[in-house]
Amino acid sequence: MNGIRPPAVAGLFYPAAADELRRQVQQLLAQAEAPALTGIRALIVPHAGFRYSGVIAASAFKPLAALAGQIGAVVLFGPAHRVPFDGVALSAFAAFATPLGPVPVDLEVRAQLLDYGPPFVTFERPHEPEHCLEVELPFLQVVLPAARIVPLLCGDVEPRDAAPALVNALRTTGDAILIVSSDLSHYHPYAQATVLDRALLTALLAGDDAGVRRKQACGMLPILTLMEIARQCAWQPHLLDYRNSGDTAGDRSTVVGYAAVAYTG
User: Average pLDDT of the chain?
Assistant: First the structure.
């Protein structure tokens, strides 16, 4: 394992100063509305800059604060935006850093996934510039300060090929949850984006893979993998929040959609 991955988007997607970052995360968590849920097994969380999607992300992370003594590992699964590849890329870093400090990687879960073999591989290059996992870390550092992470980036992979190893890792670890990082539709006018995103969420809540595939999400393959895992584990989805950047940042000419979804079981 190689050192600590430094932040790639501190000062861009979220504050670079530790005090300001912690304060902003705490404010977002205080603003967020989230129903009381028990048995949370997985989340879908957006990954834009905090100005745009932070309060929606906070609605997913807020219920985890009550589980701080029960969750030991967080499997983070998101799309690789900048480096194309086949499979699911694990990082060789021993920890991922934000201005709030390093978050350790769970070496046992990482080894278990690599022992499974393809599609799980060690491939560092996609992790170095990627924002989709990094922007979730400050929330985890506030609500689950002792948690370890398993950072996974999704390339071109069939969800049914990725799901079995993740199901096994989550079951054998016992104290792990899965967090899928994804935004929804990109750069449509406000009304059109709302229709597209609501249709995707309706299909997701119904467990309709084909309906989800027909819509738009940058983390489509991680979402479909989670849906396959949820079927195998009998988890149930719950919509926590849906908004887009027109709601949070004001410009409705072209927007990006954000949803927070919890799976319980």
Answer: 96
Q: Which helix (H) or strand (E) holds 28?
A: helix 18-31
Q: How far apart are CA 88 and CA 79, in angstroms?
A: 9
Task: Check residue 36 and give its pLDDT.
Answer: 82
**Domain boundary assignment for the chain:** 12-145+154-175+218-249+259-264
CA 145 to CA 134: how far, in whole Å? Answer: 15
In whole angstroms, give the CA distance from residue 180 to residue 67.
Answer: 18
Closest to 202 in 3D by CA, of 247, 147, 261, 254:
261
**Are the C-beta atoms of 68 and 204 separated by less than 8 Å?**
no
Q: With CA atoms as reference, report the closest residue to 201 among 244, 264, 172.
A: 244
Transcribe 35-104 into DSSP letters. Answer: ---SSEEEEEE--S-HHHHHHHHHHHHGGGGGGTTT--EEEEEEE-SS---BSEEEP--SEEEETTEEEE
Question: Looking at the domain that runs over 12-145+154-175+218-249+259-264, which CATH code has it been given?
Answer: 3.40.830.10
- Pairing state of beta strands 255-264 and 186-188? antiparallel
Strand partners, 140: none
Tell me the pTM: 0.97
Report, as an integer, the average pLDDT of 27-37: 91
Q: Which residues pair with 256 in a beta bridge?
A: 186
pLDDT digits (tens, 9 = 90+) for 171-182: 999 899 999 999
DSSP labels for 207-243?
T-HHHHHTS--TTHHHHHHHHHHHHHHT-EEEEEEEE
Measured between alpha carbons, how far is 259 from 185 in angstroms, rounded to an integer? 10
State the virtual CA torsion across 93, 95, 98, 102 in degrees, nearest 10.
Answer: -150
